[in-house]
Amino acid sequence: MNPSSTFRIAVLPGDGIGVEVMQPCIDVLEAAMRRVGNVALDYEWLEAGANTYRETGNALPKATFDACAKADAILLGAMGMPHIRYPDGTEIAPQLDLRFDLGLYAGVRPIRTIPGVPSLLASPRAEAIDFVIIRESTEGLFASRGKGVVTDDREARDTMVITRPVCERLFDFSFRLAEDRRGSGSGKGRVTCVDKANVFASFAFFRKIFDERAARFPDLAADHVYIDAMALSLVLKPWEFDVMVTENMFGDILSDLGAGLIGGMGYAPSADIGDEHAVFQPCHGSAPDIAGEGKANPTAMFQSAAMMLDWLGERHAAPSARAAARLITDAIDAAFADGRLRTCEFGGDADTAAVTRAILAAIDNDT
Amino acid sequence: MNPSSTFRIAVLPGDGIGVEVMQPCIDVLEAAMRRVGNVALDYEWLEAGANTYRETGNALPKATFDACAKADAILLGAMGMPHIRYPDGTEIAPQLDLRFDLGLYAGVRPIRTIPGVPSLLASPRAEAIDFVIIRESTEGLFASRGKGVVTDDREARDTMVITRPVCERLFDFSFRLAEDRRGSGSGKGRVTCVDKANVFASFAFFRKIFDERAARFPDLAADHVYIDAMALSLVLKPWEFDVMVTENMFGDILSDLGAGLIGGMGYAPSADIGDEHAVFQPCHGSAPDIAGEGKANPTAMFQSAAMMLDWLGERHAAPSARAAARLITDAIDAAFADGRLRTCEFGGDADTAAVTRAILAAIDNDT
Ligand SMILES: CC(C)[C@H](C(=O)O)[C@@H](O)C(=O)O
Ligand SMILES: CC(C)[C@H](C(=O)O)[C@@H](O)C(=O)O
């Protein structure tokens, strides 16, 4: 069959629970690859994050950045600690540096109900929630990070920037994803542009480029929803959406809202994807309130790792990697299916080790 | 007792369902004031909105603006129509002009469950949702309205502006509201600042001023939540919040999200309040999809009118106006209490007339 592929993975556990979910994640990756065969990962563990900043004065040391730039993919736990900050008071967030410096314009944040994980919504249709938010991740309001100006302690400004080249790649990425999803049977063949084009010139520009690119994908449906209306629709009828694409700040907000719908940050994976590089990390932060207790829900970390295998498999024509990704996703679904595995967010007693055991068992039992 | 007060109300029905809910609203106001006595309203009906723009080339004619500036309060239905736009493609939104030109910095958006109106959330605690979003309404990202720049069809920029004087008044307003709510038994004595101070200088500035003003209200709790975390918390535990205060764009998003939690825009009133003037209007838009059918839910319009009476009563030391406000609010609760009045958003057959009848009956039955 296909020859065996080995991929180099830069592993950045980071801070807090990021460290706690990383080794279980590698155990899950290894178990899945063992079942599938023909694919292997070479891990390089690297320092970055708030604790690294405290120890070295640098949140993302050059050696770490260089290793990330050379790796086939980057796996990240969580970074930042509320009490460790840059001198200007903002938080340690080297994941933002990676997005900017590696050009990871497409922040992919799938929101899917795992049957057996309680929904926060009353409607039984919440079981059908399955959409993907594409958050532009290199410009928008975040272009102003480190550049905002405060004048005379009287007035502050931050400027949002939208550029054509980034938008074109972002929208093409979104339409291609909608095609793939439809092909795999989970999508509706629809991309929704989320903006505030009724008020802002930059969002009218964003929408205009969206419409231009939509014309190249005539088989897909393309529509627009204002950000405020989308915040409402995600509560009222999230099951109606497929792929939605939006600006950086809006995507940050919508992806947390979306995570809430399907059980919270413990079930929300992400990928920040560029033309050459990609970072895979759970949407959750370092969670200092529960760090060190072994209680963190590792599911989003595992889901992010599955996204990594899928991306590697597609990019390098390695079907085994994609098969291992599917195995992990199916094992997660199987482990939660009967509703008895209750993680600590829901007051359950399934800690990191228990969730990992259940998912490992499901990988081994997959037939 | 107190002498009779008469207030001049500028009435701007606007477009679409705005027109349909306005006369019922005045019927409700009149019924409540009849019961209470000692307070009267003088209505001046005025033209503004998308249809006015189409007919006159001006969405907010000078005569309308002048009458609004002279009135004791402004009652607004809804404005804007998707197919009628300014030459630059943005929407007709004279409500934004009123906010800016009359200095209505505090956008007050209460989110409260009306028992009997179905919640979208699964938790029984959704019955206890009762918080208020204060959306700054004269600057923030909206300072860029009409000023965004697109260069060579390659790059677009909009600049967010945060100023100290507006923030100080905004935060003082929020803390005073939290005091009043605690006094009336419905609040927790807590104000939450919602920002993105971990990334942006302007939000760090916003938060710093919040902390300065919080120090003047030592009896109240003051805390901070990042906007993304708040979008999540509003799905997971909205019943925990009391007053939250945020920037214009963030407030726009959170208030629609909040409305979703308690049944949608048909139950979400608002007030835009400045030091001299105030506009009261439902959060919903002109809803062209159902306009003309008599189906619009008028509840948010009535709730907004109750907010107006309450504000007038407090400002002019007219307890009868406040009593009439309470009468309307109680009547709304009474009308929906048994769960049989189902508005069209929920597939029910309670149209504008039916909801109005039920609430008028409850006003007359109040003892
Ligand atoms: C930690 C924070 C700076 C970051 C962001 O705002 O992008 C986080 O919220 C995320 O969504 O990845
Ligand atoms: C109509 C629109 C411009 C307006 C806004 O964004 O402020 C509306 O959404 C609101 O919340 O009042």
Automatic annotation (TrEMBL), chains A, B:
> What is any one GO biological process for this UniProt entry?
L-leucine biosynthetic process
Q: Which InterPro entries match?
A: ICDH/IPMDH, IsoPropMal-DH-like_dom
Reading the lineage from the top rank, the first entry is Bacteria
Descriptive protein name: 3-isopropylmalate dehydrogenase
Q: Which Pfam families match?
A: Iso_dh (PF00180)
Q: Which cofactor does it need?
A: Mg(2+); Mn(2+)
Entries under Gene3D superfamilies matching the protein: Isopropylmalate Dehydrogenase
Quaternary structure and partners: Homodimer.
- Ranges annotated as spanning the membrane: none
Organism listed in the record: Chelatococcus caeni
Keyword terms, alphabetized: Amino-acid biosynthesis, Branched-chain amino acid biosynthesis, Leucine biosynthesis, Magnesium, Manganese, Metal-binding, NAD, Oxidoreductase
| Residues in Isopropylmalate dehydrogenase-like domain copies | 8-359
MF terms (GO), sorted A to Z: 3-isopropylmalate dehydrogenase activity; metal ion binding
Provide the family line.
Answer: Belongs to the isocitrate and isopropylmalate dehydrogenases family. LeuB type 1 subfamily.
Q: What is its EC number?
A: 1.1.1.85
**What broad class of enzyme is this?**
oxidoreductase
